[in-house]
Amino acid sequence: MLSEYEEKQYMKKWFSLSEKAAEGGFTWPSLRENDEWCQYMSTGIYRMSATQFEAIQIATVHVRDIFQRTYEYLCEHRESFLKLKFPIETWEVARMEHKNIFSYFTRFDFIVNDYDIKLIEMNSDTPTGYLEPSVANKVLCDYHGVSHPNIIEIKLKQTWKQIVEDYNIQPYEKIHFTSYDWHEEDYQTVQFIRKHCTVQSDYVGIQSIIVAKEGLYTPDGAKINYLYRLYPLEYLVDDTDEGGKKIGLQFLDHIAQGRVKIINPPSAFLMQNKAILALIWELYEKNEWFTTKEQQVIEKYFSPTYFTNEPLKNEDYVSKAYFGREGGGVSIINNGKIIEEDQTEYYYNQNKIYQKYIEMPDCTIDTWDGDYTGKLLIGSHLIGGEAAGVFLRVGEKITGNLSMFIGVTTD
C-alpha cells in the first residue's frame, strides 16, 4: 500500500501521462468495471533485452508462415472445415478464399520464459491493442527517457497501401470503417487505424449501417463497397433489427455474394477460430502437410492442443472456447480439477479446444494501490504480414479485460 503522500504523487504522474496519451487517442487508461474504476495503464517500463525482442519478432514471422500454410491446407482440404464447427450460417463466408495473406491485422499472444517462446492464441479477425504499444508506449518511453521499439504506425501505413492494391480500390472509391460507436476503445482503435489509410474513408457506427436488399448503406444513403470492421462476424448470426428481423444473416449474405468486400477478409475470420490450433497440432503429430522445417517451427513455438481433453488428462491444461475473446470461457484444469475459469455465458457454452498449460512468468508493476505482481503475457502484432512490435499485459492466470498494460523498451 502507498502512503497518502506517495499516492498523491503517483496519481499526479499517472494523470499527466494519461492526458498525454489521450492526445493521441488512447483514452482508456482506466476502465469502469463493477461500478468502480480500475487502473489499466501502469506508469512503469518493462526493460526487455534487444535480443529477446528480436527473438519475439522472429517467432512472429515463423508462426505467421505456419498459419498461412494451414490456411492453404483448409482451402485444399474442405472436409477439415467441419472440424472447426462454425455456425452453419457463417459457412459460405468462412469458406471464401483470399489470394494473399490470410489477415492484414493480426496479434499473436505469446508466453515468453527467457527465450522459450510459446504461442497460446492468435487474434486475426478483429484484434485490438494498437494504441497501447504505439501512442501510450511512446508517452511512457519519453517519460522514462528510453527508446520506443515498436513500429505500429509505419506498418499500418504500408499495409493500407497493400490493401488498396490487393482489393483494387480506385482513387475515387471510399473505404468505410465501423465498430460500436459507443465503445470508446473500439471507436478510438478504428479511428487510429483509419488515420493511416491511404485512400478516402468515412466512419459509420455498426448499429447505424442499413442492411438493404441490394447491399449495405450508410444512414445518408451512401453505398458501402469496402468495409473495415472491428466487429466479429459471428456476432452477425444473432443480429436483428428493431422488428426482430435477422438482418445479420442478410449482412453475411452480402459478404458472401461480394456486394461488400470486408477488411479483414473472411479468411481472417476462418483462421481466428481457436480450433485451428488443434488442427495444426493434429497435422504436426501425423507429420502431414508441413515441411520438415515447418514441423520444427511448430515444435518450437506451438503448444500441444487437441479437440478433446483425452491426451492431456494426466497434465495441467486449459480449455478454450472456439470463438473466445479476452479470456472468455477459459478454464484452467489442474489434476483434473478446475482451479480457475471464466464463465461468461456466450463463450462458456461454446465448443472447446484443450491446450497444454504453460505458466506465465511473474511480473511486478506499479499501480495506484502499490506494487502488483501478476502474470505477463506478450502480444506481438503482425501487420501486413510483418512484425510490428509487442504489447505487454500483466494480470491473473487468465488474461482478461482488466489485465494491465505496461510500456516496453529495449534499452
Automatic annotation (TrEMBL):
<keyword id="KW-0479">Metal-binding</keyword>
<dbReference type="InterPro" id="IPR005494">
    <property type="entry name" value="GSPS_pre-ATP-grasp-like_dom"/>
</dbReference>
<keyword id="KW-0547">Nucleotide-binding</keyword>
<dbReference type="InterPro" id="IPR016185">
    <property type="entry name" value="PreATP-grasp_dom_sf"/>
</dbReference>
<keyword id="KW-0436">Ligase</keyword>
<protein>
    <submittedName>
        <fullName>Glutathionylspermidine synthase family protein</fullName>
    </submittedName>
</protein>
<dbReference type="Pfam" id="PF03738">
    <property type="entry name" value="GSP_synth"/>
</dbReference>
<keyword id="KW-0460">Magnesium</keyword>
<feature type="domain" description="Glutathionylspermidine synthase pre-ATP-grasp-like">
    <location>
        <begin position="19"/>
        <end position="407"/>
    </location>
</feature>
<keyword id="KW-0067">ATP-binding</keyword>
